[in-house]
Amino acid sequence: MAAGLKTIIALSFVLAIGFLLVILSSALFQSYLTLLVVATYCIAPLPNWICGRCANPDDFMESAGSAIVDFGRFCTGFLVVMGVALPALLAHCGLIQIPAMVMSIIGGLLIYGTIISFTMFFQEEQDF
Amino acid sequence: MSSSRLFRFPKPEWLNSPNTRTAGVYLAGALFSLGFFFFIDASTYSKSNKNGGDVHIKFVDWVPGICSALGMLVINSIEKTRLSADSYSYSGTGVAWKARLVLFLGFALMAGGLAGSVAVLVLKYIVPQYSFPTLYFGVANVIANGLIMLSSVVLWVSQNIEDDYTYNLAL
Fold first, then answer.
1. Residue from B31, B41, B78 to probe the interface with A (highest A Cβ count within 10 Å)
2. B50 vs A79, A85, A93: nearest CB
3. How far does the CA of residue B160 sit from the closest CA of chain A (Å)?
4. For all residues of chain A together, what is the average pLDDT?
5. Which residue from A69, A107, A128, B86 could staple onto B96, CB 3.0 to 4.6 Å apart?
6. Checking phi first, is residue A67 left (phi over 0); if not, alpha (psi -120 to 50) or beta?
7. Cβ pair A96, A31 in contact under 8 A
8. Contact at 8 Å (CB) between B72 and B27?
9. CA distance A5 to chain B (A)
10. Chain B contact set for A41 (CB, 8 A)
11. ipTM for the complex?
12. pLDDT above 80: residue A65
């Protein structure tokens, strides 16, 4: 039981704060482009999960399997940086304001951190 | 293994761990994304209301980035073990030669992309003496191509780390 009840409560609290920040950043400034950050961070762990299913991690000699895993990791890295780069791009081009950018970046990082922590806890439970 | 070393300083231990390799692949994706969004930022800025001048990003500015991305795809889709395949008797004739030819094409595409971005910067933005908000389009193009090249280098190096790791495991 790596993930206790307190951990789950704290993580859901952090997730709610993240969503609150992102929704505020879009609703306060009447520009709903920052909601793209939520979409980006929600699909960021997906390539890793899908490609992890495709490859068999047990055989070390087979080099064909690791290429798919690498591709998934590459896509995940791409999407994580995209979640930070997208609000910065929108703010630089004048489509959203600077406070909206800061709020959506912080909120997105909180959401992504929650997703990653949940995955880590579940993986630890699967090992035993 | 230590007797056949080339350099005086030993290779650090953490370079051989699979964790370093995973981090390298993530870092490569992050660097590629950073470069890509530098260029997307420049082209969005050129079409936005903030752009005062009448110089816009056209298809010419996109060509170096497309070349770099294609070169990265070609380089990293080659099976690395085939590059030294001629020393084994069971591999087919000329496999290593073909692999090296394709690898050369990939490197030529990537270097051509970087050089092309510098050429666009000089010919389109520096020679007509534009000031900075317009000059940023060319600079961002060079930064984007350099970051894509760096990402490809990181990916290449971290995939070679895995070969060392499996080799150590096999012995």
1. B41
2. A93
3. 12
4. 82
5. B86
6. alpha
7. yes
8. no
9. 30
10. none
11. 0.81
12. no
